[in-house]
Write a structure and sequence with these properties.
The complex is a heterodimer of chains A (206) and B (91). Chain A has seven helices and no strands. Chain A is an all-alpha fold. Chain B has 91 residues and is mainly α. Chain B has two domains: 57 residues, no CATH class; 29 residues. In chain B, helix 1 packs antiparallel against helix 2. Chains A and B meet through helix 2, helix 4 and helix 7 of A and helix 1, helix 2 and helix 3 of B.
Chain lengths: 206, 91
């Protein structure tokens, strides 16, 4: 029950809260899924470009993808999957009212996200040092656009989860109210989901 | 809270499956199967994505309305890719 929030709303509008907690939670869930729908289509444009150019230039895609480090890509996949698990366990913890456990799992998730970006940074540096850049050809253009856009999402996820971690520390979430934790978790799983497709398409089958 | 997730053991099982599938897709990528490589890679990726959506995002326990919200963009993505291909493939 989002006592504080609804009271604040009531104070601002001068009305009694007109949504019961279950309805508020349902609305928040539909809200994040709608946002994720726009995200699918944001990445979708680039995925479409990938399909078109892969069919048009199969040789370029084959030769270029061999230049990516599939071991680092695989390690990063494992890192991101692990961060999805820690978020899921964190949500499971707050559902039982365990705030400390939630904070521990969130900290761990943010650490894994930072690890992912660190490895990504190493990869980018290595590519640039070999003269491979977004301007090299269509494959690398798509590689940098897709992984860059995804990287921005990872960064945004760290900010969101960081905010949830901070608010959890202030005692905002409990067994009965933790919708923001669930919503942020859904966003984070989506970031993982995008990478699940990016990894094979770029590193494994180019 | 009336709805409970798959439980922590369930989450860890899903995670283990995701790790195994990642190892599998990397292993298969070293074998030359021609066109089958991409089919296998996309198949494994889709199984992984489904596991994440169904269990981690607990779509499994969501209402039909949420399912509608989740599947609509997938439909549009297929439409965009198919529509674009129907142009570029037959020029």
């Amino acid at each position: 029950m989002s006592g504080e929030v609804t009271h604040k709303e009531a104070a601002m509008t001068g009305h009694e809260p007109h949504m019961d907690p279950a309805t508020a939670r349902e609305a928040a869930t539909l809200g994040i899924w709608t946002f994720l729908a726009t995200e699918v289509l944001l990445f979708g444009g680039l995925f479409t470009a990938y399909v078109i150019f892969r069919i048009k230039y199969p040789r370029m895609f084959y030769e270029d993808h061999l230049m990516l480090d599939r071991v680092l890509g695989a390690v990063n996949t494992i890192v991101l999957i692990g961060s999805s698990l820690t978020v899921a366990l964190g949500i499971s913890a707050i559902r039982k009212g365990k705030v400390r456990l939630l904070r521990m799992y969130l900290s761990f998730t943010i650490l894994l996200a930072a690890t992912f970006l660190g490895i990504k940074y190493l990869e980018y540096t290595e590519k640039f040092s070999h003269g491979l850049s977004p301007g090299t050809d269509i494959f690398f253009s798509l590689y940098f656009m897709l992984t860059g856009l995804h990287g921005i999402h990872v960064l945004a996820g760290m900010v969101v989860l960081g905010a949830v971690l901070y608010l959890a520390g202030k005692g905002k979430y409990s067994e009965s109210y933790h919708t923001p934790v669930e919503i942020s978790g859904l966003y984070w799983h989506f970031v993982d989901l995008v990478w699940i497709y990016l990894f094979p398409l770029l590193y494994l089958v180019g | 809270m009336k709805e409970h997730g798959p439980g922590n053991v369930g989450y860890i099982a899903v995670w283990a499956a995701l790790v195994v599938l990642t190892a599998a897709t990397v292993a298969v990528s070293y074998v030359h199967l021609g066109m089958m490589n991409i089919v296998v890679a996309l198949l494994i990726a889709s199984v992984k994505a489904s596991l994440v959506a169904l269990f981690f995002m607990h779509l499994r326990r969501e209402s039909r309305l949420v399912w509608g919200f989740a599947l609509t963009p997938v439909f549009f993505l297929v439409l965009i890719i198919a529509g674009t291909l129907s142009d570029t493939l037959f020029r």
